[in-house]
Specification:
Layout: H1 2-21, E1 25-26, E2 46-48, E3 52-54, E4 70-75, E5 82-89, E6 94-103, E7 106-107, E8 109-110, E9 116-121, E10 129-133, E11 143-149, E12 155-162, E13 175-180, E14 185-189, E15 191-197, E16 199-200, E17 206-213, E18 220-224, E19 232-236, E20 239-246, E21 252-259, E22 261-262, E23 265-271, E24 281-288, E25 295-298, E26 309-313, E27 316-323, E28 329-337, E29 344-351, E30 361-368, E31 375-378, E32 388-392, E33 395-402, E34 408-415, E35 423-425, E36 429-430, E37 444-446, E38 450-457, E39 463-467, E40 477-478, E41 481-482, E42 486-495, E43 501-510
Parallel strand pairs: 16-22, 36-43
Antiparallel strand pairs: 1-14, 2-5, 3-4, 4-13, 5-12, 6-11, 6-13, 6-14, 7-8, 9-10, 9-12, 15-17, 17-19, 18-20, 20-21, 23-24, 24-26, 25-27, 27-28, 29-30, 30-32, 31-33, 33-34, 35-37, 38-39, 38-42, 40-41, 42-43
Length: 512
């Protein structure tokens, strides 16, 4: 029995190796060894036109990187050289292979570049599907290229050709490629993809389900930055996770997977009531991100609203919780809802008619609150932007104020007529001592005057006061300094209610 153990063990080992490597495609003579010479093809390989086993033919002296020989290919638009080998390329599978490549600028003819195309084919001369192309090569020393091919269909041959994708003005054979030391097999390569589920912002609800295709044997999985060997990850925060999958044949595939987060963002618009006290304020939320429909909870309510508008709100501060179908949340606090201030009369100035024969009554309305601008109306007439109603006769007047939102207030004022002579009188003295008696110098205007101007001069002719307001006055100061007691000269000009120009002069005594 002991004698049988070793053959059994060796048999098992060989079977295990065969099962692990069965899906790799073994290349025959990957070192491209063969009899050197022009127009020759290495054993186990098939040629198109006249590839050459190098070095030594057609001015090529580059030494091989592996073994004693390698293949040389040069092509032009009307003459293509390639080598191929019979393999069994499976549709949709990914294979990895490597080769040492170099450019030969003088390959019997002057070349312009080196370029290698790899094809899937059903005969040695086919180019049914281009599986890979190198970049144009200009390096004459060997460089190692490793690449993957994924045939869309099943093919019997793999073809290596000197490609002619670029023009060349040096010769009819512009592409010249040297190839050596192919990998021993077309190694089955894992094809990775992933199903990703997002997470809510600042939460750990994401997940990744890794999919490994194109392999016939189990592969090992490792993740970073987290430590896991599973193909499915859960409870992930937003971020990028890297899966490294290793095939038993040594090929490694890497996939970076990004778990994004749903970011709920709401733009809040508050529309106040048109008028104070209406309690018709509203909040509108325009939400983006996440997964709709959205649910809204006002002021910690336990009852969700699927409407993004809250109406008929009283003034105050509100908060809203927004939640989407994934359970993601956005908390919005301190939404200030304010109505306009109450529209009211701040001041109303009424000026009675100056004298017996004129009509210069005036009502000036100064409102506050509401929403600017204001409009004004007298006795249900036309609305105006001026807050002053002038040229009024004696009587009772009904006036209204309206703000920009149409809110209104109203009141009544009575204008009376002063029965007296229509004239302008100027006092002869005043005492600016703040005792409430004759503190100001001003004319007593008992007429409907226009073009009014009052100037006051010192005894040296310096003007110390001027006004164009019939109700303007002098407080006895110049630049904030009380002037010396004494006599001052005044000059008064105006147009009276009879449209006659008037000029009056005189003196006034400043008493302290």
């Amino acid at each position: 029995m002991k004698l049988l153990r070793y053959p059994i063990f060796i048999c098992c080992l060989l079977c295990t190796c065969f099962s692990l490597c069965a899906q790799d495609i073994i290349l025959k003579n990957p070192s491209l060894e063969g009899e050197r010479g022009a127009g020759k093809v290495p054993p186990q390989w098939l040629g198109r036109n006249t590839p050459d086993v190098q070095p030594g033919a057609l001015n090529i002296t580059q030494q091989p990187t592996d073994g004693e020989s390698y293949i040389g290919l040069h092509s032009g638009p009307t003459y293509l050289e390639s080598v191929s080998q019979e393999v069994n390329l499976q549709a949709g599978k990914s294979y990895q292979l490597s080769a040492d490549l170099a450019y030969a600028p003088n390959y019997a003819y002057k070349a312009c570049y080196g370029l290698l195309n790899v094809y899937g084919a059903n005969s040695p001369r086919d180019t049914l599907e281009r599986l890979w192309s190198s970049v144009p090569m200009y390096h004459t020393s060997w460089r190692r290229y490793t690449f993957n091919v994924i045939p869309k269909k099943q093919y019997k041959y793999i073809v290596f050709m000197a490609g002619v994708d670029l023009p060349c003005d040096q010769s009819p054979y512009g592409s010249a490629v040297l190839m050596d030391n192919l990998s021993a097999s077309l190694r089955e390569t894992p094809q990775l993809s992933a199903d990703v589920h997002k997470t809510c912002e600042n939460e750990k609800q994401g997940s990744i389900k890794l999919k490994i295709a194109g392999v016939s044997v189990p592969c090992t999985v490792s993740w970073s930055p987290i430590n896991s060997n599973a193909t499915e990850l859960k409870n992930l925060a937003a971020g990028t996770y890297t899966a490294t999958v290793q095939h038993p044949n040594g090929v490694t595939a890497v996939l970076n997977v990004t778990v994004e987060d749903w970011k709920l963002r709401s733009n809040v618009t508050v529309t106040p009531s048109a008028c104070y006290g209406e309690n018709n304020n509203s909040i509108r939320l325009e939400t983006t991100g996440g997964t709709g429909p959205y649910r809204y909870y006002l002021n910690h309510s336990q009852h969700a609203s699927y409407s993004n508008v809250f109406e008929k709100l009283t003034p105050g501060d509100y908060n809203v919780l927004v939640m989407d179908e994934e359970g993601c949340r956005e908390s919005i606090s301190t939404i200030a809802v304010r109505e306009p201030d109450k529209l009211a009369f701040d001041q109303v100035w009424r000026r009675d008619i100056s004298c017996t024969t004129v009509m210069d009554g005036r009502i000036t309305v100064i409102p506050r609150g509401g929403t600017l601008p204001y409009s004004y109306n007298l006795n249900n007439g036309a609305w105006q932007s001026d807050s002053v109603f002038s040229k009024l006769n004696e009587g009772e007047y009904f006036y209204k104020v309206k703000d920009a939102n149409g809110c209104q207030i109203d009141s009544i004022a009575t204008i009376i007529r002063n029965i007296r002579e229509c004239a302008v009188f100027v006092p002869t003295a005043f005492s600016p001592n703040n005792d409430g008696q004759n503190d100001y110098f001003r004319a007593k205007v008992h007429d409907d005057v226009t073009d009014y101007r009052l100037d006051v001069y010192s005894r040296w002719g310096q003007r110390v006061f001027a006004t164009t307001d019939p109700y303007g006055y002098w407080d006895g100061k110049v630049n904030g300094q009380l002037q010396s007691p004494g006599t001052y000269v005044w000059v008064l000009t105006y147009t009276d209610s009879k449209q006659q120009g008037r000029k009056q002069t005189g003196t006034v005594l400043l008493i302290q």
